[in-house]
Amino acid sequence: MSSDEEDSDCPLCMEELDIADRNFRPCPCGYQICRFCWHHIKTNLNGRCPACRRLYSDQIVEFVPVSAEEIMRLKKEKKEKDRQTRDMRDPSRRQLSNVRVVQKNLVYVLGLISFRADPPYSHKQNEFFKKYGRIEKVVISKRSAPSTGSSSSVGIYVTFARKEDAGKAIEGINGMEVDGKTVRASYGTTKYCTYYLRHMACPNPNCMYLHEPGDDVDSYSKDTVAIG
């Protein structure tokens, strides 16, 4: 199926042909209309093809049922086309390279010195966060103590399925005493993917950076933080 066919409209009602209409051929001459107009012509008008004047009948109709894979493919292509249209309206994405966006379902935790920075992570570590809600992802990174340079702590990024659960986790964890240390928890931030900034499709399905505009109220620039 060509892109021209996918973008075509019914020549009678001028409505865009949906996925099923694109596989609907009511006449051997190839003149394509939507099923609604075809039914209207058969029921209320002369019942003939507007192009070749052949009498419409169920016997000459060609209709190929659309598979689930085809529907998914067309939806994906339409989504990509809509994204490209938005990109054309907003070509100045590079200015977003300095912007950070607060993620209300992402919690950043610092001060849990007993947590392992390398897998396998213990059941105790998982249970520490699971009590606040369903977790989608946990990323643990090593941090060095500023004075000694030793790996005495880890930074933990916990992605919750719900923003409300992330808020509960911050409220419950921030200020907690663990192993004699005060734990700090706050909302995590992220930046825009470099592929998104270049109007390109990101090849990494597990990319943790943003691929769509974040809310203005949750966005700030690094320059703003430095000035503040």
Secondary structure elements and their pairing?
Elements: H1 3-6, E1 24-25, H2 35-44, E2 62-63, H3 68-89, E3 99-110, H4 123-130, E4 135-143, E5 153-160, H5 163-173, E6 177-178, E7 181-182, E8 184-191, H6 194-197, E9 219-221, H7 222-227
Antiparallel strand pairs: 1-2, 3-5, 3-8, 3-9, 4-5, 6-7
Give the termini separation: 55 Å
Number of strands: 9
CATH homologous superfamily label of the largest domain: RRM (RNA recognition motif) domain
Q: Helix and strand succession?
A: HEHEHEHEEHEEEHEH
Shape: elongated
**Mean pLDDT across all amino acids:** 78
**Low-pLDDT ranges:** 1-7, 144-151
Largest sheet: 5 strands, antiparallel
Beta-strand proportion: 15-25%
Helical proportion, percent range = 25-40%
CATH architecture of the largest domain: 2-Layer Sandwich
What is the number of independent domains? 3
Q: Do you know the CATH topology of the largest domain?
A: Alpha-Beta Plaits
Class of the largest domain in CATH? Alpha Beta
Q: Which structural class do the helices and strands define?
A: alpha+beta
Number of helices: 7
Kindly provide the radius of gyration, computed on alpha-carbon positions and rounded to a whole number of angstroms: 28 Å
Which key features would you list for this structure?
five-stranded antiparallel beta sheet; single chain; disordered N terminus; 228 residues; Herpes Virus-1; 9 strands; ubiquitin-protein transferase activity; 7 helices; Alpha-Beta Plaits; two-stranded antiparallel ribbon
